[in-house]
Every structure is written in C-alpha cells, then in structure tokens.
Design a protein that fits this description.
The protein has 5 helices and no strands. With 140 residues, the chain is mainly α.
C-alpha cells in the first residue's frame, strides 16, 4: 500500500485511536454490576435481576458510542457540541441506572452530586479528545 495518506489523515486516525482507548472502559452500570455483593439478600430479588438485565444495554451502547463518536465527528466536519452533548446524555442515563442498580441490589448508590461530577468529567475528557480529532480534520 503506497504512503498516500496525508498528515491530517494520520492525525485523525491517531486521535480516533486515542479516543477509543480513553473510552474503552466499561459502562458505569457494568462496573456497578461487577462490584455487587452476590451474597446480599437483595441480589436475588426480581427487581435486582431485572435491573441487572437492563444494565447490559449500557455495555453495548458504550461500545457503539466508542466507535460512532469519532466517525460522527469526522462526517460532521468537526461539529463537536452535538457529539459531546449526546455522549453526556448517554453517560447521565448510565450513571443514574447504575445508581438504581446499586440500590435495587443492596449496594451503595452514588449521590446525584457524584453523578453530576462524573458526567462533567466525562464531558471534559470528551471535549479534550474530540478537539484532537477536530484539529486532525482541519490540519493541512
């Protein structure tokens, strides 16, 4: 394969790989499910098991977002705000559902302020890594 790839393409690929690496961690719902005490009596309840089943959707959504975010950013011509806003929204739902999971299964749920703080940090990381991708798109 000839080296026809320009510097901006290389930067875009590097930024996408960086974003993938930073976002490849598990969803908050998945992490909460892993940390649950399986010997807790609430763990065996129907409410807990239903919430655990619903947590699987967050895992799949996190994986999809990890791939889709850089692609959407690329095809949008670098429109950062909609991608970051959508990801912050998905993070908020994941965090809230993780708190419900912990509560239903006998764990300690995060407070609303802790959830807000985690979502804000995630959005800031998203902006920082997406800026790398935007710069890769506009570099000539």
């Amino acid at each position: 394969m000839p080296l026809a790839m320009g510097i901006s393409s290389i930067r875009l690929i590097a930024a996408a790989l960086l974003l993938t690496g930073l976002c490849s961690c598990a969803s908050q719902s998945e992490l909460t499910a892993i940390r649950l005490d399986r010997d807790n009596p609430k763990f065996k309840t129907r409410g807990c098991q239903d919430t655990l089943a619903a947590a699987e959707a967050h895992k799949e959504l996190k994986t999809t977002r990890m791939v889709a975010s850089p692609i959407l950013l690329f095809f949008s011509g670098g429109l950062l705000l909609p991608v970051v806003a959508a990801n912050a929204g998905f993070d908020t739902v994941d965090q809230v559902d993780a708190a419900k999971l912990a509560e239903n299964c006998g764990g300690k749920p995060k407070t609303n302020s802790a959830i807000a703080s985690d979502v804000a940090v995630g959005a800031a990381v998203g902006v920082a890594t997406s800026t790398l991708t935007v710069n890769g798109l506009t570099a000539k």
